[in-house]
UniProtKB/TrEMBL annotation:
Organism: Streptomyces rimosus subsp. rimosus (strain ATCC 10970 / DSM 40260 / JCM 4667 / NRRL 2234)
SUPFAM superfamilies, per database record: Terpenoid cyclases/Protein prenyltransferases
Region (Disordered): 381-406
Keyword Protein transport: no
Gene3D superfamilies from the UniProt entry: 1.50.10.20
Signal peptide: 1-47
Name the record gives this protein: Squalene cyclase C-terminal domain-containing protein
Keyword Transmembrane helix: yes
C-alpha cells in the first residue's frame, strides 16, 4: 500500500507510501532499481531508530508514535487515522486536529512541521506523498472539505508534463508517488483520468513505468519506480503501488467478498509496443506480484542493500491490498496468512503506520484485523496514539487510555461502519509505496 518527506528528491511503499520505514523501503526499492539512492519515498518496512534530535524529545499532543516524526509524521498519522476509520473506529479529535494543522496555506503538507503556527516558506519541504496520504485520510474522516480541496489544488499545480508526480516537485515522476496521488484524487471525488497536464493523465504516466514484452519473461508486467538512463527495472514495491493506482484505488480497499476470485492475467505478448490501459496494466502487475510471492514462500524480499533474503513485510502487506483490490481473492489469502505468522515483531518495532498497513491489508482481503494471528491489530494501533473517540475494539493499554482520556474534547460524531478511500501504496506501497513509520 506505496510512498518522501523533507529529504531529497524521492527515489524510493512499501507497497504502499511514507512513514519513515516506508520512506526507507522506497529508497531501497529505487536504489535497487536505479542503483542510486535518489531519495526516500513513501513508508513501512524497515524499523527506524529512536529520535536523535531534540524536537522528538517532546512530541506534540495527538501524534501517533513515539519516534522522530521528521520524515514521516503526516504519513504515519494519515495511515493510522485512515485505518481506524476503515474498521469503524472514530479517531481521537486531537489526532485529527494535529493532522489538519500540519497543512501549509497553499494546501501542501510536509512530512512534519514542529511549529505549525509558523507559516510555510520556500524552505518547507512540501511532499506529494504526505499530501496525498493526508487527503485520503481527511476525505474519509469528513468535515475537512476545504483542506482537501486546497491540497488537491496544490497537487494539480505540481503535476509533471508526463501526467505523473514525484515525491518532491521539480523532479521526475515515479510510480509510487503517482499512485498515491491517484488515490488522493479519487478520495476527493475526482476522476484521475480527467486531471491532466496538457494531454497527459496520471494513468499515462503510470503505464509508462511498466515493463513490456521486450523485457525478460519473468519481469514482464512489473513496474519500475522510475526510469534510470532510459531503462526500466522491475520493482516489487512500485508494482504493488501501481497495481493499486491503476485500478483507481487508494490505501483503503473494501473487501470484494469471499465468493469473488478473479484469476491474475499476465501481460499478453507479443504486442508489447502497445501500452495497456490502466486496469490491464494493474492486472499484469498483479500477476508479477503473484509470481514473486509464489517464488518466495508468499512474501516479498527486501530491496535494501545487504538485506539478502530478508522479507519486506510492508511491501508484502501492500501486495495483499493490491491483489484484493483486483478481486484476486485466493492470491491475496496466501500472503495474508504469511503476514499473520510473521508480521508481529516488525509491526511492534515499526509502529503506527505498520499496524495501519496490516489493518488495511487484513480488511481488504476479508480478514479480521481484531483477530490476526492471535493479535488485535486495531487495539495495537489504537495504543500508539491518543484514545479514540469511540471504538468497538478493546484497548491494549488501559493505562494509556486513562492518560489520554482528558485529551478528548467535543468532537464530530462520525457514522460507524466500514468505509474505504477510493484510490500505492508504498507500499510500498510503503515500500513507495512507494510503495512504506514510527511507533
Amino acid at each position: 500500500m506505496a510512498t518522501t518527506a523533507s529529504q531529497a528528491p524521492l527515489a524510493p511503499r512499501a507497497s504502499t507510501a511514507p512513514t519513515r520505514a516506508v520512506l526507507a523501503r522506497r529508497a531501497a526499492a529505487a536504489l535497487a532499481t536505479a542503483a542510486v539512492l535518489c531519495a526516500a519515498g513513501a513508508p513501512v518496512a524497515v524499523a527506524d531508530a529512536p529520535a536523535p534530535n531534540a524536537q522528538a524529545s517532546k512530541l506534540p499532543d495527538g501524534l501517533y508514535g513515539t519516534k522522530d516524526p521528521q520524515y514521516d509524521g503526516v504519513w504515519r498519522q494519515s495511515l493510522a487515522l485512515l485505518a481506524q476509520r476503515t474498521v469503524g473506529v472514530r479517531p481521537s479529535v486531537t489526532g485529527v486536529d494535529w493532522l489538519a494543522g500540519q497543512q501549509c496555506s497553499d494546501g501542501a503538507f510536509a512530512a512534519f512541521r514542529a511549529d505549525p503556527g509558523k507559516a510555510c516558506d520556500d524552505k518547507t519541504m512540501r511532499d506529494t506523498n504526505q499530501t496525498g496520504a493526508a487527503v485520503q485520510a481527511l476525505a474519509v474522516l469528513g468535515g475537512h472539505d476545504d483542506a482537501v480541496q486546497k491540497a488537491v489544488k496544490w497537487l494539480k499545480s505540481v503535476q509533471n508534463d508526463d501526467g505523473g508526480w514525484p515525491s518532491m516537485s521539480g523532479t521526475p515522476s515515479d510510480a509510487n508517488s503517482t499512485s498515491v496521488v491517484i488515490g488522493a484524487l479519487k478520495a476527493a471525488n475526482l476522476k484521475p483520468e480527467s486531471v491532466k497536464k496538457g494531454d497527459k493523465s496520471p494513468y499515462d504516466a503510470l503505464v509508462s513505468f511498466q515493463l513490456g514484452c521486450d523485457a525478460k519473461e519473468s519481469e514482464r508486467g512489473a513496474f519500475a519506480f522510475q526510469p534510470k538512463d532510459g531503462k526500466l527495472a522491475p520493482n516489487a514495491d512500485a508494482t504493488a503501488a501501481a497495481a493499486l493506482g491503476g485500478l483507481g484505488q487508494g490505501f483503503a480497499v473494501d473487501p470484494a467478498g469471499k465468493d469473488v476470485n478473479e484469476p491474475v492475467t499476465p501481460l499478453k505478448c507479443p504486442g508489447g509496443d502497445r501500452k495497456p490501459d490502466p486496469k490491464q496494466a494493474a492486472g499484469a502487475g498483479a500477476a508479477y506480484l503473484v509470481a514473486q510471492l509464489d517464488a518466495n514462500d508468499q512474501h516479498l524480499k527486501s530491496a535494501m542493500p545487504g538485506a539478502g533474503d530478508q522479507p519486506d513485510v510492508g511491501n508484502t502487506a501492500d501486495a495483499v491490498v493490491a491483489l484484493a483490490a483486483g478481486s484476486h481473492g485466493d492470491a491475496a489469502q496466501k500472503p495474508l496468512k504469511w503476514l499473520e505468522k510473521n508480521s508481529a515483531n516488525w509491526a511492534k518495532e515499526a509502529g503506527p503506520a505498520a499496524y495501519a498497513q496490516l489493518v488495511l491489508a487484513a480488511h481488504a482481503a476479508g480478514g479480521d484485523p481484531r483477530h490476526f494471528g492471535g493479535a488485535d491489530l486495531v487495539a495495537q494501533l489504537n495504543a500508539t496514539g491518543p484514545k479514540p473517540a469511540g471504538s468497538s475494539a478493546p484497548s491494549a493499554t488501559p493505562e494509556k487510555d486513562a492518560q489520554d482520556q482528558d485529551e478528548q474534547g467535543a468532537g464530530v460524531w462520525w457514522v460507524f461502519g466500514i468505509v474505504f478511500v477510493a484510490c500505492v501504496g508504498v507500499g510500498f506501497l510503503i515500500s513507495g509505496r512507494k510503495k512504506k513509520n514510527g511507533n
